[in-house]
Amino acid sequence: MILRPEAPADAAAIRSVTAAAFAGAPHASGTEAAIPDALRDAGALTLSLVAEEAGQVLCHVAFSPVLINGQDLGWLGLGPLSVAPEHQRRGIGGRLVAAGLERLRAGGAAGCVVLGDPDYYTRFGFLADPRLRYPAAPARYFLHIAFAGPVPQGVVAYHPAFGA
Length: 164
Prior knowledge:
Blueprint: E1 2-5, H1 11-22, H2 34-41, E2 47-53, E3 56-65, E4 67-68, E5 75-83, H3 92-106, E6 111-115, H4 118-121, E7 127-128, E8 132-133, E9 142-146, E10 154-157
Parallel strand pairs: 5-6, 8-10
Antiparallel strand pairs: 1-2, 2-3, 3-5, 4-10, 6-9, 7-9
């Protein structure tokens, strides 16, 4: 298994893995596969990692800037995280998330937010805090991890690509 930054040739495979990973998921909007492309096109894909095996992309994770109270405070949003259905529950997504968070820390990011299952993301150090919120979702599913400085308070906005 190789964990690496995405390459230009990976875009179609990332789209395919993301579409398959979210197909039929009860929380899916149906737009998830378009998000990495829209972020990439907007120059807002801060970090994009893939896990590949035998030349096949099995997993993808994207990180992009978020605004807190309308300001860029050096925080990023994790998502989407996509694992090809036939490779789920093997720890691949977790390895990719951990690698991404390590790169964000090393790169000087202040913190990261994620909208997702707290039972999954708390293992990486993510916590819910009602002072940092995303009004479009229940508070328990909106989590953060701080890398430097205090946790800001306010409303988080993802890049417009998430409305794709």
